[in-house]
Specification:
This protein is mainly beta. It has five domains: 45-227, Alpha-Beta Horseshoe (Leucine-rich repeat, LRR (right-handed beta-alpha superhelix)); 230-369, no CATH class; 373-452, Ubiquitin-like (UB roll), CATH 3.10.20; 480-564, no CATH class; 642-709. It has six helices and 45 strands. The strands form twelve sheets. Strands 6, 7, 9, 10, 11, 14, 15 and 16 form an eight-stranded mixed beta sheet that branches. It has a five-stranded parallel beta sheet with strand order 1-2-3-4-5. The protein has a five-stranded antiparallel beta sheet with strand order 29-28-27-24-30, with no helix packed on it. A hairpin with a 2-residue loop joins β43 (689-693) and β44 (696-699).
Length: 710
């Protein structure tokens, strides 16, 4: 028995040992998975930060010269973190070929990209030398990326197009970007880069030189030899007057008479029948761009206007696409570069300078001459039955034509605005619905529609501004046909009611008085009068970020409380007031976005258009923007650029002044990115002015800050 007990104990110990051994073996042979969490930036490559391989190489070369990285470092051996750190310490980025100590690799690092052909016109040259990544070079003081036709690709121009990555490099003092294809210089103007005193942007494609002020560049300022391509326009006929072509094209306060500054109309030159741009590849010119003047086949061009600021073209040739010119018109052996199915054969050409052989600015405006098309306005009642009053005519696509007035009927069709419909692209039948009246009405319009056509749309912006009266004239009492479907917003505190007799018990929602960009908005679906005869709008709430979105009810129609969201008149200039800017589009229905204009941008308008129940403005470049008053304001509006702290301030992470992140001392001068308002999406909270600055937001209260520069 005793031996059995010892045996049992031994068996238990043995089993325990086996179990322990098995357990240890299991834990030592089964792999343990450890999940390491890393910031997503750890997975970024240098190419993610700076996609341009050629720019990477030039940056690394400059880093080595400044001792920021070891001389043996390559793009393959340097980490993304080390590259970014050194980029933030870089004080100079230059391509200066041919100087002592520069090797052939460096001499080839021009701003011409691999697929470039050296041409200027965007449709012809696909090259784009991206500067993305330079936004991290926050200590950069000197930037030189100018073309040099003796080195690299030996083209006269490089392929830098967009300089937006430079807009926050406020330590920059010296910039040389001569000989590229930059189109918009506003990101490097003095408002963005206040310390730049040496600037050379000559030999580019800059259409907005007027944002630059010569007085800001005390060391050097060069800006001539610009070749600029405008957006295409459509003409109704083969004549066109290009008004105020160069009137606002030059930089402010420039007095360089050698390039025709300040502006004088006597420096406008008439272009020859054909103009060209040679693309060098030494020792011989081998390539050429050719632009034919639209008057080349017997037309004329004349400097016109009371002050001789206009150019009038007559007898313009029909546009041909693609450009059919194959041989050099001057008889050399150069090959004419002509790529892309959309390349135009003809342009209206305008030149400015002291002589035609050394132009300061050349404008090229492609055009298409539209053909008249047939249309028929088919009149039907609300049941779709023909009223047998159809009218036909000829016009141009996009023109507005009057719809006829029929005794006993009223137009009841949303596509009719102010008594007019738009001729479709292909013409054809335009069906318009009429509603039978309870009482007949006297006809006002003739049965035959007339065409309202803008046959001479302007292209070049004008500095003049249409100054409206301080109080806009109120419209006549709206009719259902003219107003239903339009958008309105409230100027003061209002309420939404269940019915037309406004009582507290009938209130469905309340709307506070808000700053203009955030005013509560409604769509009018009908109208009625109260028991006392006061006009009310039946509306649908369209404040999509609010809990009230979709509510239906009645609001006042009082002009002092409610007004249309969309402008109804043309103004020569508009200022962007929305904190998020306004988008420009190629199409009138606001599709095919081209760019975003920042708050404070002054836009020059050439045309005003009704589109369905909204309005659009056509800019000087042919693009469209909305006529929404929440986004733009008529005339030139002054925008705050700097404030000074009158007392100690706090900076906050959010616009509602939460999450404090910095203390700002009294007397500090602060640069403003833009202004905005708190509680943007609340219809019950009024909203308070805030200034968006680097790193967050500060109060706009005049007790704490003072605007010192606009």
């Amino acid at each position: 028995m005793k031996s059995q007990k010892h045996l049992l104990t031994a068996l238990i110990l043995m089993c325990s040992t086996i179990l322990l051994t098995t357990t240890i073996t299991q834990f030592t042979t089964t792999p343990v998975t450890i999940i390491a969490r890393a910031d997503s930036s750890a997975y970024q490559s240098i190419s993610d930060i700076m996609p341009n391989q050629k720019l990477q190489e030039l940056v690394l070369y400059n880093m080595k010269e400044q001792g920021l990285v070891d001389s043996s470092t390559t793009l393959a051996t340097i980490s993304t973190a080390d590259f970014t750190t050194a980029l933030g310490q870089l004080t100079s980025l230059t391509w200066d070929p041919g100087t002592p100590g520069k090797d052939q690799t460096y001499n080839n690092l021009d701003t011409v990209v691999k697929n470039s052909n050296g041409a200027i016109e965007p449709e012809v040259n696909p090259g784009n030398y991206s500067l993305k990544g330079l936004e991290y070079a926050t200590n950069l003081k000197t930037l030189k990326l100018a073309a040099d036709s003796n080195y690299g690709s030996k083209f006269y121009r490089g392929d830098i197009i967009d300089v937006t990555p430079l807009e926050n490099l406020t330590h920059l003092e010296h910039i040389n970007l001569a000989g590229n294809r930059i189109t918009d210089v506003s990101p490097i103007d003095h408002q963005h880069l206040p310390n730049v005193t040496w600037l050379d942007v000559s030999g580019n494609c800059i259409a907005n030189l007027n944002v630059l002020d010569a007085n800001d560049y005390t060391q050097n300022f060069a800006w001539s030899e610009q070749i600029i391509f405008h957006s295409p326009i459509t003409l109704h006929g083969n004549s066109y007057t290009w008004e105020n072509v160069f009137k606002d094209a030059l930089p402010k306060n420039s007095t360089n008479s050698a390039v025709g500054a300040p502006y004088q109309s006597k420096n406008i030159e008439l272009a020859p029948d054909v103009m060209g741009y040679f693309i060098p590849d030494y020792p011989h010119y081998q390539q050429l761009e050719v632009w034919q003047n639209g008057i080349a086949r017997g037309g004329t061009q004349t400097i016109t206007g009371d002050t001789k600021d206009n150019i009038t073209f007559t007898g313009l040739a029909q546009q041909i696409k693609p450009n059919y010119v194959k041989n050099d018109p001057w008889g050399t052996t150069a090959t004419v570069i002509n790529t892309g199915s959309k390349t135009d054969s003809y342009y209206m050409i305008a030149c400015y300078g002291t002589s035609i052989s050394s132009d300061t600015i050349d404008y090229y405006l492609p055009y298409t001459i539209a053909s008249e098309i047939n249309y028929t306005i088919h009149l039907v009642d609300e049941n779709g039955q023909s009223l047998n009053k159809d009218v036909s005519g000829k016009g141009y696509a996009g023109d507005k034509v009057n719809v006829p007035t029929i005794p006993g009927y009223t137009v009841n069709d949303s596509k009719v605005v102010s008594g007019q419909v738009v001729i479709p692209e292909a013409g054809g039948t335009i069906t318009v619905v009429y509603k039978k009246n309870a009482n007949p009405v006297t006809p006002v319009n003739p049965d035959t529609p007339s065409v309202t056509s803008d046959t001479n749309p302007a292209v070049t912006p004008s500095s003049e501004s249409t100054v409206p009266s301080k109080t806009e004239s109120r419209p006549a009492t709206p009719t259902k046909e003219s107003f239903v479907g339009q958008a309105v917003y409230s100027l003061r505190k209002i309420h939404l009611y269940k019915n037309t007799n406004f009582t507290k018990a009938a209130r469905k929602a309340s709307y506070s008085k808000k700053p203009r960009p955030y005013r509560p908005m409604f769509v009018v679906t009908g109208y009625r009068r109260s028991a006392t005869g006061k006009l009310r709008y039946k509306v649908r709430d369209v404040n999509h970020a609010s809990k009230t979105d979709g509510l239906v009810g009645y609001i006042t129609a009082n002009w002092n409380y409610v007004r249309p969201v969309y402008y109804q008149s043309k103004y020569k200039t508009l200022t962007v007031i929305n904190p998020r800017g306004v988008n420009a589009y190629k199409k009138v229905n606001l599709t095919k976005k081209v760019r975003n204009y920042k708050q404070g941008t002054v836009l020059h308008v050439t045309k005003f258009i009704h589109h369905n129940l909204t309005t659009r403005y056509v800019l000087s470049n042919g693009n469209y923007i909305t006529g929404n008053r929440k986004l733009v304001k008529m005339g030139k509006q002054k925008m705050p650029r700097y404030v000074r702290a009158k007392k100690d301030l706090k900076r906050y992470k959010t616009i509602n002044l939460t999450e404090r992140n910095k203390h700002i001392k009294r007397g500090t001068k602060i640069r403003i990115k833009n202004y905005d308002f708190s509680h943007a999406n609340s219809v019950t909270k009024a909203g308070t002015l805030r200034y968006h600055i680097a790193g967050g937001y500060i109060t706009g209260n005049t007790k704490y800050v003072k605007v010192i520069k606009r």
